[in-house]
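Lay summary. Proteins are chains of building blocks that fold into shapes, and those shapes determine what they do. In this project we predict the shape from the chain. Here is one chain we studied, written as its sequence of building blocks.
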Amino acid sequence: MFNSELMKRLSDCFGPSGREKRIREMIMDEIKDFADEITIDPLGNLIARKKGTGKKILFSAHMDQIGLIITHVDEKGLLRFANVGGLNAKELLGLRMVFDNGLEGVICQEELKDNEKLSTSKLFLDVASTDKEFIAKNFRVGDMCVFKSEYYETEDCVICKAADDRIGCYVLIEALKNHPETNNDVYYVFSVQEEVGCRGAKTAGYNINPDLAIAVDVTATGDTPDGIKMDVKLGNGAAIKLMDKSIITHTEVKDLLTDIAEKNSIKYQYEILEFGGTDAGPIHTSRDGVPSGVISIPTRNLHTSGEIFNKFDVEECIKLVIGTAAK
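And here is the predicted shape, written in a compact code that computers can read:
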């Protein structure tokens, strides 16, 4: 059964790239009774291990979310910013943002002249105050903020911010809680800084040096008229990635995931994403190479304040992770 309370807490928890402390602490508290060993590496990755003497398997889902970083506070108390992760300026206008201290702002734009195109440099954050002392005390260059939006769900789907990749974290948490009887040495990695270059996965993969690595992340869908042409659909099960911009899935890994899905009656679909990447990208080229793949959760409206995923797909992804851990 889908744990709505856990997913809401994961979605609502503040944790943009490089500022993952709160979400890491929340996940650690959630999994502490289910792992044999929990470590935090120097970059901030949270690594939960279920010890074994068999082959070494690494699962990775990233904790960080996209956001904004303040670059300048002008004389009027308006905040300029830069992206932390991939954001489209055209989709930001009018959105409310929230800082780690709970204060908020709304994204506004300068007047555009002639055929001038909207870009991040033409946007600013209005924090609803004309008190310069208040602004100077509470907002500084380097502060980060994230989308402010309400968690909502229907019988079969969820709308929330930061589904990328808190739903992947959810999948790993639930898989760890239901870890199978196996001789494998399994590492559940909750990585940092994926949205700015998969940096946490690079160090975790190098340090663990697994025999098999599987990233668990969101992917786009082709079932809405948003211009993306692909076969992945909400409600069609776990997506087994074949390729994206960071990896061509190892043939044996693709066959392994397919075999596990078919033998365990797990509904699945194949995925080819023509943009983006996941933690599997840097891991599969670590050291002398690691056979790697990706279990993807189909998600609409990626990198927006209202990402949508299907609960059934999530459950199938959990089953596929558990089956892979036991293989």
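What the prediction tells us: The chain has a mean pLDDT of 95.
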